[in-house]
Amino acid sequence: MAAVNVDKLSLKELIDLEAKVKKALALARDRERMEIKKKVADLAETHGFSVAELFGGGRGRGPGKNKSVGVAKYANPENKLDTWTGRGRKPNWLVERLKKGAKLSDFEI
Known about the structure:
There is one protein chain. This protein has helices at about 10-45, 50-55, 90-100, and strands at about 75, 80-85. With about 110 residues, the protein is mainly alpha-helical. The chain has a two-stranded antiparallel ribbon with strand order 1-2. The protein is extended. The mean pLDDT is about 85. It is found in: Cytoplasm, Nucleoid. One of its GO terms (molecular function) is transcription cis-regulatory region binding. It comes from Hyphomicrobium denitrificans 1NES1. Belongs to the histone-like protein H-NS family.
């Protein structure tokens, strides 16, 4: 990787670089999270379990808080394990593709 001499960049170039770094960080985080999710799912499956069996169906729900979990309606074409129910905040992979002109219907399952 080539080193960037930030001391010689203009303000506009620095702002552009900052935006690119933020985007790259978000993508790297998403990529790592998906890799870990896949490893956990593969390990569970190898031993005859599902992730839901091992960790439960939801996040941060205590006893007696049975909240319905939405069914996935949209999937990342690059990684079918990466899904979204259509509720709540859009995942980064979807936001990036929508910015590039894709339609939400392109990702329907």
